[in-house]
Amino acid sequence: MNPAELYNNILVPAIFEPWANMMTHGINTNDHVLDVGCGTGVIARRANERLNRTGSITGADLSQEMLNVASAVSSNTINWKKADITDLPFDDQQFDIVICQQIMQFVPDKQKAISECFRVLKPNGKLVIAVWKSTDYSPGWKALQDSLSEIIGEPYLLPPFAFDKPDDLVTFTKNAGFDFIDITHITKQTHFNDSDDFIDGVVGGSQNMLGKLADVTGTADSINIIKQKMKKKLATHINSNGLTFDQANNVLSATKPSS
Which listed CATH number (3.40.50.1450, 3.40.50.150, 3.40.30.10, 3.30.1490.190) goes with 3-255? Predict the structure, then answer.
């Protein structure tokens, strides 16, 4: 399997799918929905189910590999578009809802990204953004982060957790022009069949989750060392059903003014 397939088969069911209902609950019949940073399309697929052949759903991502998998495993009623969140190839006021699940922490210019979301939303349109809280709120990722830091001999923050700044997220959203901004802290459980699945999924399926530490995981020996460290650190979270741990999100919702 290529990295996008590994990502879809291992990481999506464990990490991203549990949030799909919550992230799409505000969708109404006939809405036009944009899922930015859609990856292999878990949010877009759930949105499509909610729309039930009304409105439209578009999934946008920078990775053509991710989009290829999304297209292969999804209904042909979903539109897929290779796109940069800071320069969206869509008309002004085209969508009723824009959803951004776990993309903003990877975007260098967050203000421009959120302003682009504002531009493509219709008046009274809704924005929903989710970014992980720090690894302190997620034992599985904390164990991985600490294991990798031990290997390189210095502290390192995993990229998916590099934007645990809810106040900054609110500020960017206000600056873009949004009203009725609300941010909540929500925790759900992440489950893998075992800790090896977790490591194999992250290392093989999405190296942007490791950032510069991708080089550390370049050999079977190093991966085995990480797995050994992880099993020790996560012993209390592993049982006959597999590996289960909490994962906490900062979830923001906001509305574009009517005029």
Answer: 3.40.50.150
Is the dihedral angle over the CA atoms 209, 215, 217, 222 positive or is it negative?
A: negative
CB 81 within 8 A of CB 110: no
Percent of the chain with pLDDT over 90: 71
User: Residue 53's closest CA among 31, 36, 23, 81?
Assistant: 31
Q: 87: closest CA among 116, 63, 111? A: 116
Say if CB 63 and CB 77 are below 8 A apart: no
Q: Bigger pLDDT: 55 or 207?
A: 55
Q: Which of 141, 120, 101 is nearest to 252 (CA)?
A: 101
Residue-wise pLDDT for 90-127, tens only, equals: 999 999 999 999 999 999 999 999 999 999 999 999 99
CA gyration radius for the chain?
18
